[in-house]
Amino acid sequence: FLVPIYENYFFTSLQLKNNYQAVNIGNLLKHFNDVSPDFWLNYAGVLSQTSQASKAIDVYRSLAEKEDLVKEQSHFKMVYLQAFKKKNYEEAFKSLEIALKKYPNQYQFNKVKAYLFYLTENWKEAWEILDKMIPQTKQDFKNKALVAYQNDKEKEAIQILENAYILYPEEDILTNLVS
Question: How does pLDDT run across 65-124, given as a tens digit for each residue?
């Protein structure tokens, strides 16, 4: 009976951008078994916005294990928080391995894995992933070219940047060739 009332109060607090009030309501709601998946996703989001990344990671981990509708999204957000908020690359790699077993062809997980290899200066592993991927954004082209260059593949790096220039002629893609 109380759960829908508290959920409405929670979502209203979010709409009013009163994140700390929403966290307090969420801390109460999390003890009920029948809260909605939307609540859990928003609760984890507001936790991460209020600098409570560890708690948000726990919520996303729980969602990734049990909620069918939000598993993939929860895995991605958990990895993001582990890698980029907590700078815990080891945990991020572990979570990515679990996610990639469930979603082996998911572009965003492979892209993040390559980026984590890049951040940890594992150029060869980053290239092995990126070499198989078709860049989807201007930044993807730049990242792939940089990793190719880091692997002493200058010709491939130049070719990647030239291909990017075809798609983004007004951009500063080719300045990467001289820098």
Answer: 765 545 666 677 777 777 777 788 888 888 888 888 877 777 778 888 898 999 899 999
Number of residues assigned to the chain: 179
Read off the pTM: 0.61
Q: Which two tokens stand for residue 8?
A: 């409405």
* Cα 35 to Cα 30: distance, rounded to the nearest angstrom: 8
Q: Return all residues near 130 (Cβ < 8 A) that are at least 6 apart.
A: 114, 143, 144, 147, 148
Q: How far is CA 78 from the centre of its chain?
A: 7
Which residues are CB-contacts of 104 (< 8 A; sequence separation ≥ 6)?
Answer: none
Q: Which amino acid is at 100?
A: L
What are the tokens at 57? 């990671």
| Residue at token pair 């908020």 | 85
Other beta carbons less than 10 A from residue 106's beta carbon: 15
Q: What whole-number distance in Å separates Cα of residue 36 and Cα of residue 53?
A: 21
Distance CA 55, CA 96 (A): 18
